[in-house]
Amino acid sequence: MRCPRRLKAATLATLALLWLCPGGNAATPDECPAVDVPATSAPGAPALRAYIDPVTGKLREPTADELRELAEARLKSRAARAPRVFEVVTHPDGMKSVDLGEAFLFDVRIENLPDGSMKTTCVPHATPAAAGTEK
Amino acid sequence: MRTHRASAAFLSCALAASPLAASARITIVNANQAGIGFNDPTAATPVGGNPGTTLGQQRLNAFQKAAELWGALIDSDVEIRIKASFEPLECTATTGTLGAAGPSTSVQGFTNAPLPQTWYVVALANKIAGRDLAPTAPGHIAAKFNSNVGTAGCLETSQWYYGLDNQHGNQIDLVSVLLHEFGHGLGFLTLVDPETGTEFLNDPDVFEQHILDTSTGAHWNSMTAAQRKASALRTGALVWDSPSVTAAVPGTLSGRPVLTVTEPAALSGDFPVGTADFGAALTIAGVSSDLIAAADAENADGPTATDACSTLDNAAAVAGRIAVVDRGECTFVVKAHNAQAAGAIGLVVANNVADTSILGMAGDDATITIPIASVTQADGATIRASLATGVAVRMRLDPDHRSGADAENRMLLFAPDPVQPGSSTSHWDSSAYPHLLMQPNNSSDLPHAVDLTLPLLQDIGWEAAPAPEPRDAVHRVPRDVSPRPLGPRP
Protein backbone atom coordinates (compact mmCIF):
# COMPACT_ATOMS: atom_id res chain seq x y z
CA MET A 1 0.00 0.00 0.00
CA ARG A 2 1.38 3.35 -0.95
CA CYS A 3 1.14 5.63 2.05
CA PRO A 4 -2.55 6.33 1.96
CA ARG A 5 -3.31 8.85 4.61
CA ARG A 6 0.05 9.43 6.04
CA LEU A 7 2.11 12.43 5.83
CA LYS A 8 4.43 11.81 2.99
CA ALA A 9 7.85 13.19 2.69
CA ALA A 10 9.34 12.85 -0.66
CA THR A 11 11.78 14.56 -2.78
CA LEU A 12 10.22 16.09 -5.77
CA ALA A 13 11.27 17.10 -9.11
CA THR A 14 13.34 20.13 -9.39
CA LEU A 15 11.33 21.19 -12.32
CA ALA A 16 12.93 24.39 -11.99
CA LEU A 17 16.55 25.26 -12.17
CA LEU A 18 17.11 27.28 -15.23
CA TRP A 19 19.16 24.93 -17.31
CA LEU A 20 20.04 26.25 -20.66
CA CYS A 21 21.57 23.18 -22.15
CA PRO A 22 25.06 23.85 -23.27
CA GLY A 23 24.30 21.76 -26.28
CA GLY A 24 21.51 22.70 -28.59
CA ASN A 25 19.83 24.76 -25.96
CA ALA A 26 22.48 27.23 -25.17
CA ALA A 27 24.13 26.97 -28.47
CA THR A 28 23.33 29.59 -30.92
CA PRO A 29 22.16 28.33 -34.24
CA ASP A 30 23.67 30.24 -37.02
CA GLU A 31 26.21 32.22 -35.10
CA CYS A 32 29.36 30.65 -33.86
CA PRO A 33 28.31 27.72 -31.74
CA ALA A 34 31.69 27.29 -30.12
CA VAL A 35 31.62 30.80 -28.83
CA ASP A 36 28.16 30.35 -27.41
CA VAL A 37 28.17 31.18 -23.79
CA PRO A 38 27.65 27.79 -22.22
CA ALA A 39 24.84 28.40 -19.87
CA THR A 40 23.80 26.31 -16.98
CA SER A 41 22.24 26.80 -13.66
CA ALA A 42 24.14 27.54 -10.58
CA PRO A 43 22.42 25.75 -7.75
CA GLY A 44 19.51 27.68 -6.48
CA ALA A 45 19.39 30.45 -8.97
CA PRO A 46 19.53 31.01 -12.68
CA ALA A 47 23.03 31.85 -13.72
CA LEU A 48 25.50 31.66 -16.51
CA ARG A 49 28.68 29.67 -16.23
CA ALA A 50 31.45 30.33 -18.70
CA TYR A 51 34.25 28.01 -19.65
CA ILE A 52 37.44 29.55 -20.90
CA ASP A 53 39.97 27.71 -22.98
CA PRO A 54 43.27 28.38 -21.18
CA VAL A 55 45.18 28.27 -24.44
CA THR A 56 43.09 30.49 -26.63
CA GLY A 57 41.39 32.46 -23.89
CA LYS A 58 38.13 31.98 -25.73
CA LEU A 59 34.87 30.74 -24.38
CA ARG A 60 34.40 27.07 -24.97
CA GLU A 61 31.75 24.45 -24.39
CA PRO A 62 31.93 22.38 -21.22
CA THR A 63 32.99 18.80 -21.55
CA ALA A 64 30.68 15.91 -20.82
CA ASP A 65 32.47 15.31 -17.53
CA GLU A 66 32.03 18.94 -16.58
CA LEU A 67 28.34 18.73 -17.36
CA ARG A 68 27.96 15.70 -15.17
CA GLU A 69 29.85 17.39 -12.35
CA LEU A 70 27.47 20.29 -12.62
CA ALA A 71 24.48 18.00 -12.48
CA GLU A 72 25.86 16.30 -9.38
CA ALA A 73 26.52 19.63 -7.74
CA ARG A 74 23.00 20.72 -8.51
CA LEU A 75 21.57 17.62 -6.93
CA LYS A 76 23.73 18.00 -3.84
CA SER A 77 22.73 21.59 -3.48
CA ARG A 78 19.10 20.73 -3.80
CA ALA A 79 19.37 17.97 -1.26
CA ALA A 80 20.87 20.43 1.19
CA ARG A 81 17.93 22.79 0.96
CA ALA A 82 14.75 22.39 2.87
CA PRO A 83 12.16 20.64 0.73
CA ARG A 84 9.08 22.45 -0.30
CA VAL A 85 6.08 21.18 1.57
CA PHE A 86 2.97 20.31 -0.35
CA GLU A 87 -0.16 20.02 1.70
CA VAL A 88 -2.10 16.88 0.91
CA VAL A 89 -5.77 17.39 1.68
CA THR A 90 -7.80 14.24 2.20
CA HIS A 91 -11.47 14.84 1.48
CA PRO A 92 -14.41 13.03 3.10
CA ASP A 93 -14.87 10.83 0.05
CA GLY A 94 -11.26 9.76 0.16
CA MET A 95 -10.05 12.00 -2.61
CA LYS A 96 -6.69 13.64 -2.07
CA SER A 97 -5.77 17.00 -3.52
CA VAL A 98 -2.60 19.04 -3.58
CA ASP A 99 -2.32 22.72 -4.38
CA LEU A 100 0.70 22.79 -6.64
CA GLY A 101 1.07 26.54 -6.57
CA GLU A 102 3.56 27.44 -9.26
CA ALA A 103 5.66 24.32 -8.75
CA PHE A 104 4.70 22.72 -12.05
CA LEU A 105 4.45 25.73 -14.28
CA PHE A 106 6.46 25.52 -17.47
CA ASP A 107 8.26 28.67 -18.51
CA VAL A 108 8.65 29.58 -22.12
CA ARG A 109 11.94 31.41 -22.35
CA ILE A 110 13.33 33.31 -25.25
CA GLU A 111 16.79 34.39 -26.19
CA ASN A 112 17.58 36.87 -28.89
CA LEU A 113 20.68 35.68 -30.67
CA PRO A 114 23.45 37.77 -32.12
CA ASP A 115 22.49 36.84 -35.66
CA GLY A 116 19.05 38.35 -35.16
CA SER A 117 17.22 35.09 -34.73
CA MET A 118 15.59 34.02 -31.53
CA LYS A 119 15.46 30.76 -29.66
CA THR A 120 12.61 29.70 -27.46
CA THR A 121 12.67 26.87 -24.98
CA CYS A 122 10.26 25.40 -22.48
CA VAL A 123 11.96 25.13 -19.10
CA PRO A 124 10.92 24.64 -15.51
CA HIS A 125 9.48 27.55 -13.64
CA ALA A 126 10.63 27.18 -10.08
CA THR A 127 12.31 24.70 -7.85
CA PRO A 128 9.74 22.64 -6.11
CA ALA A 129 11.14 20.50 -3.46
CA ALA A 130 9.01 17.86 -2.15
CA ALA A 131 7.49 16.89 1.01
CA GLY A 132 3.88 16.42 1.87
CA THR A 133 1.83 17.26 4.85
CA GLU A 134 -1.56 15.84 5.37
CA LYS A 135 -4.65 17.74 6.27
CA MET B 1 -13.94 37.07 -15.88
CA ARG B 2 -14.79 36.21 -19.42
CA THR B 3 -16.14 33.01 -20.71
CA HIS B 4 -15.74 31.51 -24.09
CA ARG B 5 -17.47 28.55 -25.56
CA ALA B 6 -16.24 26.93 -28.68
CA SER B 7 -17.75 28.68 -31.61
CA ALA B 8 -19.82 26.92 -34.18
CA ALA B 9 -17.03 27.37 -36.67
CA PHE B 10 -14.50 25.62 -34.52
CA LEU B 11 -16.93 22.93 -33.59
CA SER B 12 -17.35 22.30 -37.27
CA CYS B 13 -13.62 21.87 -37.61
CA ALA B 14 -13.52 19.49 -34.72
CA LEU B 15 -16.38 17.49 -36.07
CA ALA B 16 -14.71 17.25 -39.42
CA ALA B 17 -11.74 15.62 -37.78
CA SER B 18 -13.67 13.27 -35.60
CA PRO B 19 -17.05 11.69 -35.29
CA LEU B 20 -17.06 12.75 -31.67
CA ALA B 21 -18.65 16.02 -30.69
CA ALA B 22 -16.06 17.46 -28.37
CA SER B 23 -16.15 20.71 -26.56
CA ALA B 24 -15.27 22.23 -23.28
CA ARG B 25 -15.86 25.60 -21.79
CA ILE B 26 -12.53 27.18 -20.98
CA THR B 27 -12.72 30.37 -19.01
CA ILE B 28 -9.97 32.91 -18.73
CA VAL B 29 -9.98 34.33 -15.21
CA ASN B 30 -8.43 37.78 -15.42
CA ALA B 31 -6.16 38.09 -12.40
CA ASN B 32 -4.81 41.51 -13.27
CA GLN B 33 -5.54 44.65 -11.32
CA ALA B 34 -7.15 47.60 -13.01
CA GLY B 35 -4.98 49.40 -15.50
CA ILE B 36 -2.39 46.67 -16.09
CA GLY B 37 -2.01 43.43 -17.97
CA PHE B 38 -5.33 42.43 -19.45
CA ASN B 39 -6.69 45.76 -18.28
CA ASP B 40 -3.96 47.88 -19.85
CA PRO B 41 -5.82 50.78 -21.51
CA THR B 42 -3.03 51.64 -23.95
CA ALA B 43 -4.57 52.13 -27.37
CA ALA B 44 -3.84 49.41 -29.90
CA THR B 45 -4.63 48.94 -33.54
CA PRO B 46 -6.61 45.80 -34.40
CA VAL B 47 -4.27 43.22 -35.87
CA GLY B 48 -4.57 39.84 -37.54
CA GLY B 49 -8.24 39.32 -36.74
CA ASN B 50 -7.88 40.58 -33.20
CA PRO B 51 -10.42 43.40 -32.93
CA GLY B 52 -9.14 44.71 -29.60
CA THR B 53 -8.46 48.41 -29.47
CA THR B 54 -6.48 48.36 -26.25
CA LEU B 55 -3.39 46.39 -25.35
CA GLY B 56 -5.23 44.66 -22.56
CA GLN B 57 -8.14 43.65 -24.73
CA GLN B 58 -5.88 42.27 -27.41
CA ARG B 59 -4.05 40.17 -24.85
CA LEU B 60 -7.30 38.85 -23.51
CA ASN B 61 -8.57 38.11 -27.00
CA ALA B 62 -5.46 36.05 -27.72
CA PHE B 63 -6.00 34.07 -24.55
CA GLN B 64 -9.62 33.56 -25.55
CA LYS B 65 -8.53 32.33 -28.93
CA ALA B 66 -6.20 29.70 -27.49
CA ALA B 67 -8.91 28.67 -25.04
CA GLU B 68 -11.37 28.47 -27.89
CA LEU B 69 -9.07 26.25 -29.96
CA TRP B 70 -8.51 23.84 -27.10
CA GLY B 71 -12.13 24.01 -26.06
CA ALA B 72 -13.22 22.83 -29.47
CA LEU B 73 -11.06 19.74 -29.30
CA ILE B 74 -11.49 18.35 -25.83
CA ASP B 75 -14.62 17.35 -24.08
CA SER B 76 -15.64 18.20 -20.55
CA ASP B 77 -18.88 19.03 -18.84
CA VAL B 78 -16.95 20.90 -16.20
CA GLU B 79 -15.74 24.39 -16.92
CA ILE B 80 -11.94 24.69 -17.08
CA ARG B 81 -10.76 27.88 -15.40
CA ILE B 82 -7.41 29.39 -16.33
CA LYS B 83 -6.21 31.96 -13.85
CA ALA B 84 -4.23 34.29 -16.04
CA SER B 85 -2.27 37.48 -15.81
CA PHE B 86 0.10 39.64 -17.79
CA GLU B 87 2.80 41.01 -15.52
CA PRO B 88 6.51 41.83 -15.50
CA LEU B 89 8.54 38.62 -15.45
CA GLU B 90 12.26 37.95 -15.32
CA CYS B 91 13.96 39.51 -18.27
CA THR B 92 17.12 41.07 -19.67
CA ALA B 93 17.67 42.89 -22.91
CA THR B 94 18.35 39.64 -24.76
CA THR B 95 16.82 36.83 -22.79
CA GLY B 96 13.88 36.29 -20.54
CA THR B 97 10.70 34.50 -19.69
CA LEU B 98 7.81 34.93 -22.08
CA GLY B 99 5.34 33.27 -19.82
CA ALA B 100 4.56 30.26 -17.72
CA ALA B 101 1.62 27.97 -17.24
CA GLY B 102 0.75 24.62 -15.77
CA PRO B 103 -1.69 22.76 -13.60
CA SER B 104 -2.54 24.39 -10.30
CA THR B 105 -3.85 21.32 -8.51
CA SER B 106 -3.27 17.62 -8.62
CA VAL B 107 -5.73 15.04 -7.30
CA GLN B 108 -6.15 11.30 -6.83
CA GLY B 109 -8.83 8.99 -5.49
CA PHE B 110 -11.67 11.04 -6.97
CA THR B 111 -14.98 9.69 -8.21
CA ASN B 112 -14.56 7.48 -11.27
CA ALA B 113 -10.77 7.74 -11.12
CA PRO B 114 -9.56 5.11 -13.58
CA LEU B 115 -6.35 4.40 -11.69
CA PRO B 116 -6.01 4.17 -7.92
CA GLN B 117 -3.46 6.23 -6.04
CA THR B 118 -2.46 7.99 -9.22
CA TRP B 119 -2.13 11.74 -9.65
CA TYR B 120 -4.19 13.56 -12.26
CA VAL B 121 -4.15 17.24 -13.12
CA VAL B 122 -7.37 18.70 -11.83
CA ALA B 123 -8.84 19.80 -15.15
CA LEU B 124 -8.72 16.21 -16.34
CA ALA B 125 -9.93 14.82 -13.03
CA ASN B 126 -12.88 17.20 -13.17
CA LYS B 127 -13.81 15.91 -16.59
CA ILE B 128 -13.64 12.30 -15.42
CA ALA B 129 -15.48 12.95 -12.16
CA GLY B 130 -18.09 15.11 -13.81
CA ARG B 131 -17.78 17.84 -11.22
CA ASP B 132 -15.41 20.55 -10.10
CA LEU B 133 -13.05 18.98 -7.59
CA ALA B 134 -11.44 22.30 -6.76
CA PRO B 135 -14.40 24.66 -6.72
CA THR B 136 -12.71 27.30 -4.62
CA ALA B 137 -9.49 27.41 -6.61
CA PRO B 138 -9.25 30.51 -8.79
CA GLY B 139 -8.03 28.36 -11.64
CA HIS B 140 -7.43 24.79 -12.63
CA ILE B 141 -4.58 26.02 -14.74
CA ALA B 142 -2.33 28.93 -13.84
CA ALA B 143 -0.83 31.15 -16.51
CA LYS B 144 1.17 34.33 -16.32
CA PHE B 145 2.85 36.09 -19.16
CA ASN B 146 5.42 38.83 -19.49
CA SER B 147 4.01 42.29 -20.04
CA ASN B 148 7.45 43.84 -20.49
CA VAL B 149 8.48 42.03 -23.66
CA GLY B 150 9.74 44.56 -26.17
CA THR B 151 10.32 47.33 -23.65
CA ALA B 152 13.62 48.83 -22.53
CA GLY B 153 15.71 46.21 -20.79
CA CYS B 154 13.45 43.31 -21.65
CA LEU B 155 13.89 41.39 -24.90
CA GLU B 156 14.13 44.71 -26.60
CA THR B 157 14.08 43.41 -30.15
CA SER B 158 11.08 41.12 -29.63
CA GLN B 159 7.40 41.85 -29.69
CA TRP B 160 4.29 39.87 -28.91
CA TYR B 161 2.05 39.25 -31.86
CA TYR B 162 -1.51 39.54 -30.67
CA GLY B 163 -3.11 38.69 -33.99
CA LEU B 164 -5.21 35.57 -34.13
CA ASP B 165 -4.24 34.49 -37.63
CA ASN B 166 -0.72 33.14 -36.97
CA GLN B 167 0.75 35.64 -39.43
CA HIS B 168 3.31 36.71 -36.88
CA GLY B 169 6.36 37.23 -39.07
CA ASN B 170 9.34 37.78 -36.76
CA GLN B 171 7.15 38.50 -33.78
CA ILE B 172 6.23 36.02 -31.08
CA ASP B 173 2.86 34.48 -31.70
CA LEU B 174 1.08 34.59 -28.37
CA VAL B 175 -1.63 32.15 -29.40
CA SER B 176 0.92 29.47 -30.32
CA VAL B 177 2.76 29.87 -27.04
CA LEU B 178 -0.52 29.67 -25.17
CA LEU B 179 -1.59 26.51 -26.96
CA HIS B 180 1.65 24.87 -25.83
CA GLU B 181 1.37 26.10 -22.27
CA PHE B 182 -2.26 25.15 -21.92
CA GLY B 183 -1.26 21.69 -23.14
CA HIS B 184 0.88 21.28 -20.05
CA GLY B 185 -1.97 22.49 -17.90
CA LEU B 186 -4.30 19.92 -19.43
CA GLY B 187 -1.95 17.10 -18.53
CA PHE B 188 0.95 16.92 -20.96
CA LEU B 189 3.49 16.46 -18.20
CA THR B 190 4.81 14.00 -15.70
CA LEU B 191 5.21 15.06 -12.10
CA VAL B 192 8.24 12.79 -11.77
CA ASP B 193 11.53 14.48 -10.99
CA PRO B 194 13.76 13.41 -13.88
CA GLU B 195 16.88 14.20 -11.91
CA THR B 196 16.09 11.76 -9.14
CA GLY B 197 13.37 9.60 -10.65
CA THR B 198 11.21 10.31 -7.64
CA GLU B 199 7.46 10.33 -8.10
CA PHE B 200 5.38 13.19 -6.79
CA LEU B 201 4.80 12.46 -3.13
CA ASN B 202 5.67 8.85 -3.84
CA ASP B 203 2.67 8.11 -6.03
CA PRO B 204 2.65 7.74 -9.82
CA ASP B 205 0.92 10.10 -12.19
CA VAL B 206 -1.25 9.08 -15.09
CA PHE B 207 1.32 10.28 -17.63
CA GLU B 208 3.80 7.68 -16.38
CA GLN B 209 1.57 4.81 -17.43
CA HIS B 210 2.45 5.46 -21.05
CA ILE B 211 6.16 6.23 -20.72
CA LEU B 212 7.94 3.17 -22.01
CA ASP B 213 11.66 2.58 -21.92
CA THR B 214 12.20 0.37 -24.92
CA SER B 215 15.67 -0.58 -23.73
CA THR B 216 14.18 -2.38 -20.75
CA GLY B 217 10.59 -2.90 -21.84
CA ALA B 218 9.35 -1.33 -18.63
CA HIS B 219 6.93 1.51 -18.10
CA TRP B 220 7.82 4.28 -15.70
CA ASN B 221 5.09 3.46 -13.23
CA SER B 222 6.64 0.03 -12.73
CA MET B 223 10.17 1.29 -12.16
CA THR B 224 12.08 2.29 -9.09
CA ALA B 225 13.23 5.87 -8.75
CA ALA B 226 16.76 4.83 -9.68
CA GLN B 227 15.49 3.11 -12.80
CA ARG B 228 13.47 6.16 -13.81
CA LYS B 229 16.46 8.42 -13.25
CA ALA B 230 18.52 6.27 -15.59
CA SER B 231 15.70 5.93 -18.06
CA ALA B 232 15.24 9.70 -18.36
CA LEU B 233 18.65 9.88 -20.04
CA ARG B 234 18.06 7.23 -22.68
CA THR B 235 17.79 9.35 -25.79
CA GLY B 236 15.89 7.52 -28.47
CA ALA B 237 14.65 4.79 -26.15
CA LEU B 238 11.96 6.63 -24.24
CA VAL B 239 8.65 6.48 -26.07
CA TRP B 240 4.99 7.23 -25.58
CA ASP B 241 3.33 3.82 -25.56
CA SER B 242 0.00 4.31 -27.19
CA PRO B 243 -1.68 2.73 -30.20
CA SER B 244 -3.58 5.90 -31.06
CA VAL B 245 -0.54 8.17 -31.09
CA THR B 246 1.51 5.58 -32.96
CA ALA B 247 -1.22 5.22 -35.56
CA ALA B 248 -1.18 8.96 -36.15
CA VAL B 249 2.59 9.21 -36.60
CA PRO B 250 2.86 8.28 -40.31
CA GLY B 251 0.36 10.92 -41.30
CA THR B 252 1.96 13.57 -39.17
CA LEU B 253 5.73 13.28 -39.39
CA SER B 254 8.16 13.22 -42.29
CA GLY B 255 10.82 10.59 -42.96
CA ARG B 256 13.82 10.51 -40.67
CA PRO B 257 16.97 12.21 -41.91
CA VAL B 258 19.97 9.89 -41.67
CA LEU B 259 23.54 9.51 -42.74
CA THR B 260 23.77 5.99 -44.07
CA VAL B 261 27.28 4.57 -43.99
CA THR B 262 27.75 1.96 -46.68
CA GLU B 263 31.51 1.47 -46.27
CA PRO B 264 33.36 0.23 -44.29
CA ALA B 265 31.20 -2.67 -43.28
CA ALA B 266 32.18 -2.30 -39.65
CA LEU B 267 30.64 1.16 -39.61
CA SER B 268 27.69 0.51 -41.86
CA GLY B 269 24.29 1.63 -40.72
CA ASP B 270 22.20 4.75 -40.23
CA PHE B 271 23.38 7.62 -38.09
CA PRO B 272 20.57 10.02 -37.14
CA VAL B 273 21.26 13.55 -38.29
CA GLY B 274 19.92 17.01 -37.78
CA THR B 275 19.14 19.25 -40.69
CA ALA B 276 19.63 22.87 -41.62
CA ASP B 277 17.07 25.44 -42.56
CA PHE B 278 19.17 26.46 -45.53
CA GLY B 279 20.79 24.52 -48.34
CA ALA B 280 19.22 21.68 -50.27
CA ALA B 281 16.65 19.51 -48.60
CA LEU B 282 17.47 15.89 -48.07
CA THR B 283 15.59 13.47 -50.25
CA ILE B 284 14.81 9.79 -50.13
CA ALA B 285 17.23 9.23 -53.01
CA GLY B 286 19.80 11.27 -51.16
CA VAL B 287 23.34 12.29 -52.02
CA SER B 288 26.05 9.64 -52.07
CA SER B 289 29.80 10.04 -51.84
CA ASP B 290 32.92 9.41 -49.83
CA LEU B 291 33.42 11.54 -46.77
CA ILE B 292 36.40 13.84 -46.64
CA ALA B 293 37.66 15.86 -43.70
CA ALA B 294 37.72 19.51 -44.66
CA ALA B 295 40.91 21.32 -43.73
CA ASP B 296 41.40 25.03 -43.40
CA ALA B 297 43.89 27.38 -41.86
CA GLU B 298 44.11 27.86 -38.13
CA ASN B 299 43.51 31.56 -38.13
CA ALA B 300 41.43 34.34 -36.65
CA ASP B 301 38.35 33.11 -38.45
CA GLY B 302 38.61 29.79 -36.67
CA PRO B 303 41.48 28.43 -34.57
CA THR B 304 41.26 24.81 -35.70
CA ALA B 305 41.95 23.14 -39.01
CA THR B 306 38.60 21.36 -38.85
CA ASP B 307 36.16 24.23 -38.31
CA ALA B 308 35.88 25.26 -41.98
CA CYS B 309 35.60 28.87 -40.98
CA SER B 310 37.90 29.95 -43.77
CA THR B 311 38.66 28.88 -47.33
CA LEU B 312 39.45 25.18 -47.44
CA ASP B 313 43.03 24.19 -48.09
CA ASN B 314 42.16 20.81 -49.53
CA ALA B 315 39.61 21.90 -52.09
CA ALA B 316 40.90 19.44 -54.67
CA ALA B 317 40.19 16.53 -52.37
CA VAL B 318 36.86 17.93 -51.21
CA ALA B 319 35.50 18.53 -54.70
CA GLY B 320 32.76 16.08 -55.54
CA ARG B 321 32.65 14.65 -52.04
CA ILE B 322 30.79 15.20 -48.80
CA ALA B 323 32.87 17.26 -46.41
CA VAL B 324 33.07 16.71 -42.68
CA VAL B 325 33.67 19.69 -40.43
CA ASP B 326 33.39 20.45 -36.74
CA ARG B 327 30.78 22.73 -35.26
CA GLY B 328 31.97 25.95 -33.72
CA GLU B 329 33.83 29.21 -34.15
CA CYS B 330 31.76 30.49 -37.05
CA THR B 331 28.26 30.16 -38.38
CA PHE B 332 26.83 27.10 -40.04
CA VAL B 333 26.30 29.19 -43.13
CA VAL B 334 29.99 30.12 -43.29
CA LYS B 335 30.98 26.46 -43.03
CA ALA B 336 28.54 25.50 -45.75
CA HIS B 337 29.72 28.35 -47.93
CA ASN B 338 33.36 27.29 -47.64
CA ALA B 339 32.57 23.64 -48.27
CA GLN B 340 30.44 24.45 -51.27
CA ALA B 341 33.05 26.81 -52.66
CA ALA B 342 35.55 23.96 -52.50
CA GLY B 343 33.23 21.81 -54.56
CA ALA B 344 31.67 19.68 -51.83
CA ILE B 345 28.37 18.09 -52.75
CA GLY B 346 27.25 17.83 -49.16
CA LEU B 347 28.30 18.83 -45.67
CA VAL B 348 28.30 16.96 -42.38
CA VAL B 349 28.78 19.04 -39.24
CA ALA B 350 29.97 17.16 -36.18
CA ASN B 351 28.67 18.63 -32.95
CA ASN B 352 31.33 19.97 -30.60
CA VAL B 353 29.10 19.53 -27.58
CA ALA B 354 28.47 16.29 -25.75
CA ASP B 355 24.75 16.33 -26.27
CA THR B 356 22.77 13.29 -27.27
CA SER B 357 19.91 15.20 -28.85
CA ILE B 358 19.87 16.05 -32.51
CA LEU B 359 21.15 19.45 -33.51
CA GLY B 360 19.20 21.57 -35.96
CA MET B 361 21.11 24.30 -37.77
CA ALA B 362 19.59 27.69 -38.32
CA GLY B 363 20.71 30.13 -40.93
CA ASP B 364 19.67 31.76 -44.14
CA ASP B 365 21.62 31.88 -47.36
CA ALA B 366 19.93 31.21 -50.66
CA THR B 367 23.28 30.68 -52.35
CA ILE B 368 23.89 27.48 -50.43
CA THR B 369 22.65 24.64 -52.60
CA ILE B 370 24.24 21.58 -51.03
CA PRO B 371 22.54 19.53 -48.31
CA ILE B 372 23.81 19.94 -44.75
CA ALA B 373 23.42 17.51 -41.88
CA SER B 374 24.67 17.40 -38.31
CA VAL B 375 25.78 14.40 -36.28
CA THR B 376 26.37 14.10 -32.58
CA GLN B 377 29.82 14.63 -31.19
CA ALA B 378 30.15 10.92 -30.47
CA ASP B 379 29.06 9.88 -33.96
CA GLY B 380 31.34 12.50 -35.43
CA ALA B 381 34.30 11.03 -33.58
CA THR B 382 33.39 7.54 -34.71
CA ILE B 383 33.16 8.60 -38.32
CA ARG B 384 36.34 10.65 -38.21
CA ALA B 385 38.24 7.68 -36.82
CA SER B 386 37.57 5.77 -40.02
CA LEU B 387 38.14 8.53 -42.54
CA ALA B 388 41.70 7.52 -43.20
CA THR B 389 40.58 4.21 -44.64
CA GLY B 390 37.56 5.61 -46.44
CA VAL B 391 33.94 6.10 -45.45
CA ALA B 392 31.18 5.97 -48.06
CA VAL B 393 27.85 7.50 -47.11
CA ARG B 394 24.46 8.57 -48.34
CA MET B 395 22.76 11.63 -46.86
CA ARG B 396 19.08 10.84 -47.17
CA LEU B 397 15.63 10.60 -45.75
CA ASP B 398 14.68 7.22 -44.44
CA PRO B 399 11.10 6.73 -45.65
CA ASP B 400 10.62 3.73 -43.39
CA HIS B 401 11.10 5.67 -40.21
CA ARG B 402 9.43 8.87 -39.10
CA SER B 403 11.40 11.71 -37.61
CA GLY B 404 10.82 11.87 -33.89
CA ALA B 405 9.58 8.28 -33.72
CA ASP B 406 11.26 4.94 -33.21
CA ALA B 407 11.31 2.06 -35.67
CA GLU B 408 7.83 1.03 -34.59
CA ASN B 409 6.48 4.55 -35.06
CA ARG B 410 6.21 5.13 -31.36
CA MET B 411 6.71 8.79 -30.56
CA LEU B 412 9.95 9.58 -28.81
CA LEU B 413 9.84 11.59 -25.64
CA PHE B 414 12.51 14.20 -25.00
CA ALA B 415 15.24 12.39 -23.07
CA PRO B 416 18.50 14.29 -23.37
CA ASP B 417 21.65 13.35 -21.52
CA PRO B 418 22.40 15.27 -19.35
CA VAL B 419 18.88 15.67 -18.11
CA GLN B 420 17.07 18.96 -18.62
CA PRO B 421 14.73 19.33 -15.68
CA GLY B 422 11.33 20.46 -16.77
CA SER B 423 12.00 19.79 -20.41
CA SER B 424 12.99 16.14 -20.12
CA THR B 425 10.16 13.65 -20.59
CA SER B 426 7.34 16.20 -20.53
CA HIS B 427 7.78 17.01 -24.23
CA TRP B 428 8.03 15.22 -27.53
CA ASP B 429 11.55 14.66 -28.76
CA SER B 430 13.21 17.60 -30.48
CA SER B 431 13.86 15.56 -33.64
CA ALA B 432 10.20 15.38 -34.67
CA TYR B 433 9.30 17.20 -37.85
CA PRO B 434 7.11 18.94 -38.83
CA HIS B 435 7.49 20.64 -35.52
CA LEU B 436 4.95 19.65 -32.93
CA LEU B 437 3.13 21.76 -30.41
CA MET B 438 4.65 20.03 -27.40
CA GLN B 439 8.29 19.96 -28.42
CA PRO B 440 10.52 21.73 -25.93
CA ASN B 441 11.79 24.39 -28.26
CA ASN B 442 8.52 26.06 -29.22
CA SER B 443 9.18 26.47 -32.90
CA SER B 444 8.02 29.56 -34.68
CA ASP B 445 6.54 27.63 -37.59
CA LEU B 446 3.72 25.95 -35.71
CA PRO B 447 0.22 26.10 -37.04
CA HIS B 448 -2.58 26.74 -34.59
CA ALA B 449 -3.11 23.01 -34.18
CA VAL B 450 -2.51 20.39 -31.55
CA ASP B 451 -1.23 17.54 -33.73
CA LEU B 452 -0.21 14.44 -31.76
CA THR B 453 -0.97 16.12 -28.47
CA LEU B 454 -4.64 15.35 -28.88
CA PRO B 455 -4.38 11.54 -28.98
CA LEU B 456 -1.89 11.74 -26.12
CA LEU B 457 -4.40 13.60 -24.01
CA GLN B 458 -6.95 11.01 -24.97
CA ASP B 459 -4.64 8.33 -23.64
CA ILE B 460 -4.60 9.89 -20.21
CA GLY B 461 -8.35 10.28 -20.01
CA TRP B 462 -9.58 13.17 -22.12
CA GLU B 463 -12.23 12.43 -24.68
CA ALA B 464 -11.38 13.94 -27.97
CA ALA B 465 -10.95 13.22 -31.61
CA PRO B 466 -9.38 9.76 -32.00
CA ALA B 467 -6.95 11.03 -34.59
CA PRO B 468 -5.18 14.35 -34.99
CA GLU B 469 -6.65 16.87 -37.31
CA PRO B 470 -5.45 16.57 -40.90
CA ARG B 471 -2.34 18.56 -40.44
CA ASP B 472 -1.35 18.58 -44.07
CA ALA B 473 -4.21 20.92 -44.71
CA VAL B 474 -2.41 23.60 -42.78
CA HIS B 475 1.18 22.42 -42.74
CA ARG B 476 1.87 20.37 -45.78
CA VAL B 477 5.18 18.56 -45.78
CA PRO B 478 6.35 16.68 -48.80
CA ARG B 479 7.33 13.18 -47.81
CA ASP B 480 10.44 13.18 -49.93
CA VAL B 481 12.18 16.22 -48.55
CA SER B 482 13.99 16.77 -45.34
CA PRO B 483 12.91 18.57 -42.24
CA ARG B 484 13.80 22.23 -42.29
CA PRO B 485 14.13 23.38 -38.71
CA LEU B 486 13.89 27.09 -38.22
CA GLY B 487 16.04 27.29 -35.17
CA PRO B 488 18.36 25.52 -32.81
CA ARG B 489 17.17 22.41 -31.14
CA PRO B 490 17.45 21.73 -27.48
What does this structure look like?
The complex is a heterodimer of chains A (135) and B (490). With 135 residues, chain A is of the alpha+beta class. Chain A contains one helix and seven strands. Chain A has a three-stranded mixed beta sheet with strand order 4-3-7, with no helix packed on it. Chain A has a two-stranded antiparallel ribbon with strand order 1-2. A two-stranded antiparallel sheet of chain A has the order 5-6. In chain A, strand 5 and strand 6 form a beta hairpin. The radius of gyration of chain A is 19 Å and the shape is flat. The N terminus of chain A is likely disordered. By secondary structure, chain B is α/β, with parallel strands linked by helices. Chain B contains ten helices and 22 strands. In chain B, the strands form six sheets. Chain B has an eight-stranded mixed beta sheet, with helices on both faces. A five-stranded mixed beta sheet of chain B has the order 1-2-4-8-5, with helices on one face. The radius of gyration of chain B is 24 Å and the shape is globular. Chain B starts with a strand and ends in a 26-residue tail after the last strand. The N terminus and C terminus of chain B are likely disordered. Classes of the chains: A alpha+beta (135), B alpha/beta (490). At the A-B interface, helix 1, strand 4, strand 5 and strand 6 of A face strand 5, strand 6 and helix 4 of B. Strand 4 of chain A pairs antiparallel with strand 6 of chain B, so a sheet runs across the interface.
